[in-house]
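Morning. Coffee machine broken again, so started the prediction first thing and wrote up yesterday's gels while waiting. Chain of 270 residues, entered below exactly as on the submission form.
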Amino acid sequence: MLRVTLLGGAAFTVDQAMVRTDLGPAGRLLACFLFEFMGQTHRRERLADLFWGELEPEKARSALNTAVWRIRKMLDRSGAKGANRLVTIGDDVVLEPADFIEVDTHALESAFRRAVGGRGAGPLSARDEDEVGDAVARYRGPFLDGDDGDWVLQERERLHCLFVRSTLELMRAAARRGLHENALDCGRRILALDPLRESVQREVMLLLVLNGQRADAIHAYQRLRGLLKADLGIEPMPDTRRLHHDIVSGAIFENLGAYAGSYFGEATTC
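Came back before lunch.
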């Protein structure tokens, strides 16, 4: 099994052993590109320009051919004639999907479909929650952290949104069942990577109240207010200030069930 890690930085392992390649920086990015867009056909000219655009066209094509050969060698490390999955037909290159290739970003996409699909058809099943939980737990950081090409930045934003949406669904599923500690773990996982996501901050504040941690909810608001002031020079949104007021005044306890239903029973967009 060849496991490809693209979240938080690139790594390739076969049977839990790190695969050390001689791809070089551009070849490594090419490999990541092919694994991320596995099953899609790419023109050689575009790949050469995308990863070796600073070279003369002939040298760029030569560098591409060498990188493709080295990626095939890495695929063969899986022991399943993996090189045959990287196909070149004329001016086209495609890395065909295979059971022996596992990519963490693909697992995240599958988790998102389960999370959102489960919501539309009813509560997530225990199996769905386990699979979604395993996938989001592998989100160790931004896609290809440290690289900043246009295609990397676009994928980074898209995948981060999938992570947030999937983790939110887990958080709300746990909250609806009264598993407030589990829900808080999900919320904190999002905020560890995206502390200025104010909608999640509000849900965590409410979960703290539901979990009997009213003082912690007030402190969470104060931390958020400090972050927003320091980073953006703004105050929290009206909804956040209103929630904080209700927590401090105790008004939230007059209808806590309705409050929880309004937060954890509705869909949220990224």
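The beta strands are 2-5, 11-14, 17-18, 41-43, 86-89, 92-95, 101-103. Going to sketch it on the whiteboard this afternoon.
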